[in-house]
Every structure is written in C-alpha cells, then in structure tokens.
Amino acid sequence: MKTFTNSNARDLQQAVTLVQQTHRDGKAASFVGGGSDLLGLVKERLVAPDVLVNLKTIKGLDQVTPAAGGVNIGGLITLDTLSHNPVIRRDYAVLAEAAETVATPQIRNVGTLAGNVNQRPWCWYFRNGFPCFKNGGNTCFSFGGENQFHAIFGGGPSYIVHPSDTAVALVALEAKFRIVGPSGERLLPAADFFALPQQNPARENVLGPEEILAEVQLPSARPATRSTYHKIMDREAWTHAVVSAAIVLEMEKDVCRSARIVLGGVAPIPWRLPEVERMLAGQRVTEALAARAAETALEGAKPLAKNAYKVPLTKGVVRRTLLDLASRA
Ligand SMILES: Cc1cc2nc3c(=O)[nH]c(=O)nc-3n(C[C@H](O)[C@H](O)[C@H](O)COP(=O)(O)OP(=O)(O)OC[C@H]3O[C@@H](n4cnc5c(N)ncnc54)[C@H](O)[C@@H]3O)c2cc1C
C-alpha cells in the first residue's frame, strides 16, 4: 500500500483548498468520511491518494436540523445516527429504514451518509482490479462474464448497479444535495446527481474531484405521506441489495394521491419509475393494481445472461411493498 498523509480539515473551504493544493503539486488526494469504503480501495490499490482530506473533523456536519419545513442532514452524519433520528424515523421512514439495512452495525457506526452515497461500485471485476471502465480501461467484463448481480436497466457500456441503499431512498424523497467546491456551492436534485454510464462509464455521479457533498436537504413531508424501504439480499445481513424498492405514498383514506417509486440493485443509478407513479395517482391500491404496477415496472428491462431472475424478483418486491405500504393505517 502506498504511503499517504492525513490532513484534518477545519471547515469545508479548507478541505477544498487542501485537495486543490495537492492536485497543483501533481499528487492525488481523496476526501474521506468514515473511510470504510475508501481504505478498502486503497488497500486493494484501486486508488492511490498521497493525501487523505479528513472531513470528519469539520464540526456541525453530522446533524439533522429543521429547515424551511423540511430538514437538512449534514453529509458527515453516521448511518447509525441517521437511522435512529426520531424526525427521520417519523417523517422520512424510507431513509431511516434504508440506512439501517446497510452492511453491519460496525460499518453503520463509522460510515457517513455522504460516503454511502459516494461509495464506489462493488462489481467483482472492478474490486479485483480488472482493467474495466471503472479502473480506467475500456471494457465491461460483466457483460459477457459473471453478471448475476448486474444491471437489468440503464446498462451500457458499464453494467454495474449503484450500491447505495440511502441513495435510493433520497431519490424517492426528492432530496437535494448541497455541493461545495472550488467555484462555490451548488444545489442539485438527488436524481440529477447520479449519472448513467452512457454519460461517463468511469463514474457514477457528476461530483467533481474537488467537490464535497456537504449536506442533504429533504423537503417538508406532505401530510398523510407514508414511506418504506424493502431490500432483498442473497444472505440475511452484511451485504448490498440484490433488489430494493423505496416507495413514498401520499394517501387520502385508501386512495393514493401521489406515489414515488425508486428501485435499487437493478441499474447503475437509483431507478425511478415515473410511469408506475402516474398509474397509481388517484387510485385505490388493490391487488390487481399492484400487480399491474409490478408488470409495468419491469417493462423495458434488459437482463443479461445470468440475471434474468431479477425480473420476477423485482416484480414481487414492487407488488408486495406497494400493498404493504398502502394497507398501513
Ligand atoms: C462488508 C460491507 C458491506 C456493505 N454493505 C452495504 C450495504 O448493504 N448497503 C450500502 O449502501 N453500502 C454497503 N456497504 C458500503 C458502506 O456502506 C460504505 O463503505 C459506507 O457507507 C461509506 O461511508 P464512509 O463514510 O465510510 O465513506 P468513505 O470510505 O470515507 O468514502 C467513500 C467514498 O466517498 C467519497 N466521499 C466520502 N465523503 C464524501 C463527501 N462528503 N463528499 C464527497 N465525497 C465523499 C470518498 O472519497 C470515497 O471515494 C458495505 C461495505 C462493506 C465493507
């Protein structure tokens, strides 16, 4: 493993400046939150920073604070703290539930929300150092290889699936991301943060190398809104979603006024289902409607040679999660 130095950032501006200076010196730098993903990448020699800019030393970026009817969540909040926050549990259950399904208690205790959203893919070809798109090459080995866990939507030329559970919930909640970088701040809808491989197969989002995901902003929770996260894994714990669904329903008695449905584990980005959302608006969520929604959800899926099982699995997740959420009092 290459030797690196650790620089504790005092504030966001200093963190950006430290990375800029390192780049000007012709060296590599990485921002680090909990380090639970980054240090693994360093050990596997997939990234080789000369300087780690530690964001956890920035005060106040680990809080949930009320703002404009909604809440602002500091990017450095740990997944454990986030999942236990009473406001998040009450008004944004889908996010609390997504955070508490991540990995293990140990990882949730150190892993941050921003780090979770920015973690790199867990495709075995990438993680094992194959010269794929993510490692600077020009091939996706999964396409003709071991693609059991890869994309059925939005793939090509890379077929990774986005690994973050919280990202799926944040898109369903129509969160905004406050990003701080060399040219100041920008506010981006979560859905516009994630990028398909057609845009740049080496990356999963539009964050620049000197930019920090500083804060996540959630809009006010509409009255009578309920939400949930359902995750399917290939073992009981300690792993990423094979398929997941984040669903937010605004209900009036038993009628769905509006719906937001986003899938995880099936595409290189959190995969929103606008057509299904339109189908549900103004309807009672019956068994028949949930079954039709599940069929529509999977229209256009393009499974690879070894992951066609994801199609019926995802249909089941959409149907069951919808019925479960709609029937809650
Ligand atoms: C065994 C195992 C199982 C796992 N299972 C799951 C799972 O089920 N679901 C899931 O979602 N994840 C899972 N993960 C991934 C885990 O959740 C992430 O490692 C963790 O959330 C990353 O958070 P961190 O703060 O430690 O990030 P770090 O390791 O510090 O950073 C991760 C990446 O994000 C960048 N980064 C960090 N903070 C910022 C910031 N504020 N702005 C810009 N860039 C930033 C870093 O440069 C790095 O590239 C698993 C990991 C392991 C090892």
Low-confidence stretches: none
At the fold tier of CATH, the topology name of the largest domain is Uridine Diphospho-n-acetylenolpyruvylglucosamine Reductase, domain 3
User: Which hetero ligands occur in this complex?
Assistant: flavin-adenine dinucleotide
Specify the helix fraction band: 25-40%
Class by SSE composition: alpha+beta
Number of helices: 13
Give the SSE order as H and E letters: EHEHEEEHHHHHHHEEHEEEEEHEHH
Kindly state the mean pLDDT as a whole number? 97
Structure explained in plain terms:
With 329 residues, the chain is an alpha+beta fold. The protein has 3 domains: 1-55, Uridine Diphospho-n-acetylenolpyruvylglucosamine Reductase, domain 2 (2-Layer Sandwich); 64-119 and 153-218, Uridine Diphospho-n-acetylenolpyruvylglucosamine Reductase, domain 3, CATH 3.30.465; 225-326, Enolase-like, domain 1, CATH 3.30.390. 31% of the residues lie in helices and 22% in strands. The chain is built from 13 helices and 13 strands. Strand 2, helix 2 (38-43) and strand 3 (51-54) form a beta-alpha-beta unit. Helix 11 packs antiparallel against helix 12. The longest helix has 17 residues, at 310-326. The mean pLDDT is 97. Flavin-adenine dinucleotide binds next to strand 2, helix 6, helix 7 and strand 8.
